[in-house]
Each structure stands twice: as structure tokens, then as C-alpha cells.
Design goal:
Blueprint lengths: L1 E4 L11 H9 L2 E4 L2 H10 L6 E3 L5 H13 L4 E4 L12 H9 L4 E4 L4 H9 L6 E5 L5 H9 L7 E6 L4 H12 L3 E6 L7 E6 H9 L7 E5 L4 H8 L1
Parallel strand pairs: 1-4, 1-5, 2-3, 2-4, 6-7
Antiparallel strand pairs: 7-10, 8-9, 8-10
Helix pairs in contact: 3-4, 6-7, 7-8
Subcellular location: Cytoplasm
InterPro entries: 4pyrrol_Mease (IPR000878), 4pyrrol_Methylase_sf (IPR035996), 4pyrrole_Mease_sub1 (IPR014777), 4pyrrole_Mease_sub2 (IPR014776), rRNA_ssu_MeTfrase_I (IPR008189), SAM_MeTrfase_RsmI_CS (IPR018063)
GO molecular function: rRNA (cytosine-2'-O-)-methyltransferase activity
């Protein structure tokens, strides 16, 4: 059986009993970063062999995991934090296992995009998760343009090194929409800033940034769409 196991995004107490039970029972743990996962396993006194599985060896490691599953071994896949497959390796392995007729299941748990969405105060009934945008400005603007007329709340991940540039481009493409920026979710210094893209940009430009950020942006307002159509 292949298990995709969600792990804490910050606070280790968020790990589920079922996740711990699974990690203790499988034969092998496939980890995005064996060192980081090693710290998690040590904290919960779990001793299991690890296999490196990340974006740079996804094809080769995926083939090895498939072989192990066909041998009757059980494998748990974990990312550095959160849910495997959500802006982390996992999708290709699930597809590989499904195509091979192998059993796959998931141990659900933390994911930063959903937590940020709920805490943003923006509509949650319909949303689009867009993951990490392109690093370069031209590609980033084209990426943002795709959802310019979307009515759905938009969710993005961004690094501290490009957050200001991202907000600047989002402001240019979408206009000054309501938005929220979340950082250090579930940790001691958890922070969610809410406002408009312009006020958030002004705040970010004056702050020291670190860690991974989640940006939530309101979808296009129906009144705005109606005005443009006229």
C-alpha cells in the first residue's frame, strides 16, 4: 500500500494519531528531505528507513517506490511540511501507482493554503489554488493574467525574496482588490495581514521577511465584471 501522509506545517502537535500510526507501521518512508523528516521521526521516536523522494529525482525514485510496492512493501510519502502533492512531489507517484493498479490512500492533515484561505476573511465557497508563480516578472504577469476575470478567491504560495514583486504585479494585473498575506502558520509568531493589495504591499516593503508566504486574493467582483462588459 502507498500512503500519502500529511505532516505539520509548523506546530508538531498538529500531527494526527493516524499519521503517527501509519509512519510507525510502514516498511519505508519516502521523504522530500530525509534530514527534516529525520527530525520529525526522532521527535516522535519513530525509527524507519528513509528513501529520498524530491522534485529532482522524482522519476527515478518513483520507479523504485513502485518496485517496492510490487514486492509487497508498504511505503509512506511525506513532504517537508503539509500535504504531499500540494506544491510538493507526490502527483506523479500517485499517477504511477494508479496506472500500475497498486493500492493508494492518504492520511489527511495540515495544508497551508486551506488554513490561509479560512483565516483570510475572503469567500471560501469557491477558490482556485495556483501554487508558486513563475520567478521572472514577464512569466509571473502572464500567470496572473489567466485568472484576471475569475470570480473565485485565488491562493498563491510565494517566497520572501519575491513577495513584494508578486504583490506589485498582482496589484497591476488585478487592481486594488481585498487580499491577505499569511506567514508562520501554526507557529509561535503566526501572522495574517488583511487589507488591499496596495496596503499589504506597503506593509511588506517595510518588513523583514522570512519563511514561506501564502497570499489570498479576492476574485473579481460581479459589479466590476458587469461594468467592463458595458
Amino acid at each position: 500500500m502507498l500512503y500519502l501522509v500529511a505532516t505539520p506545517i509548523g506546530n508538531l502537535n498538529d500531527i494526527s494519531l493516524r499519521a503517527l500510526e501509519t509512519l510507525r507501521s510502514v516498511d519505508i518512508i519516502a521523504s522530500e528531505d530525509t534530514r527534516k523528516t529525520g527530525l520529525l521521526l526522532k521527535h516522535f521516536d519513530i525509527q524507519k528507513p528513509q528513501l529520498s523522494f524530491h522534485e529532482h529525482n522524482e522519476e527515478r525514485a518513483g520507479q523504485r517506490i513502485e518496485e517496492l510496492l510490487k514486492e509487497g512493501k508498504s511505503v509512506a510519502v511525506v513532504s517537508d511540511a503539509g500535504t504531499p502533492g500540494i506544491s510538493d512531489p507526490g502527483f506523479t507517484l500517485v499517477r504511477r501507482a494508479v496506472n500500475a493498479g497498486l493500492d493508494v490512500t492518504m492520511i489527511p492533515g495540515p495544508t497551508g493554503c486551506i488554513m490561509a484561505l479560512v483565516l483570510s476573511g475572503l469567500p471560501v465557497h469557491s477558490f482556485t489554488f495556483r501554487g508558486f508563480p513563475p520567478r521572472k516578472a514577464v512569466g509571473r504577469r502572464k500567470f496572473l493574467e489567466i485568472d484576471k476575470d475569475s470570480p473565485h478567491t485565488l491562493i498563491f504560495y510565494e517566497s520572501p525574496y519575491r513577495l513584494a514583486d508578486f504583490l506589485r504585479d498582482a496589484l497591476e494585473v488585478y487592481g486594488d482588490r481585498p487580499a491577505a498575506v499569511a506567514n508562520d502558520l501554526t507557529k509561535m509568531f503566526e501572522k495574517v495581514e488583511r487589507g488591499t493589495l496596495s496596503t499589504l504591499l506597503a506593509s511588506i516593503e517595510q518588513s523583514k521577511l522570512k519563511g514561506e508566504y501564502v497570499v489570498v486574493i479576492a476574485g473579481k467582483d460581479k459589479k466590476d465584471r458587469h461594468t467592463e462588459e458595458q
